[in-house]
């Protein structure tokens, strides 16, 4: 993920549809994306039923084209 220029995760609550991008620079780079799932919970409803993936839309090259 970081080797491809992405430094955040897109996280969406599957219960209330709240979504956010979370910067993960403070975590070691060797952690797999799915290892963050158990660390996250929705800040709106408190659910741990979440979906996450790299926040590809935050990649610097992509952002500069839009």
How would you characterize this protein structure?
It is a single chain. The protein has a single domain, classed as Rubrerythrin, domain 2, CATH 2.20.28.10. It has 66 residues and is mainly β. It is globular and about 30 Å long. It has 1 helix and 3 strands; from the N terminus they run βββα. The two termini are 21 Å apart.
Secondary structure class reads mainly beta
What is the end-to-end distance? 21 Å
Q: Low-confidence runs (pLDDT<50, min 5 residues)?
A: none
- How many strands, which pairing sense, and closed or not: the largest β-sheet? 3 strands, antiparallel
CATH top level class name: Mainly Beta
Fold-level CATH name: Rubrerythrin, domain 2
Mean pLDDT score, rounded? 87
Assembly context of the chains: single chain
Number of helices: 1
Large-scale geometry:
globular
**Sheet with most strands: strand arrangement:** 2-1-3
Number of DSSP strand runs: 3
- The proportion of strand residues reads 15-25%
Order of helices and strands: EEEH
Domains, number: 1
CATH architecture: Single Sheet
What is the helical fraction, as a range of percent? under 10%
Radius of gyration: 12 Å
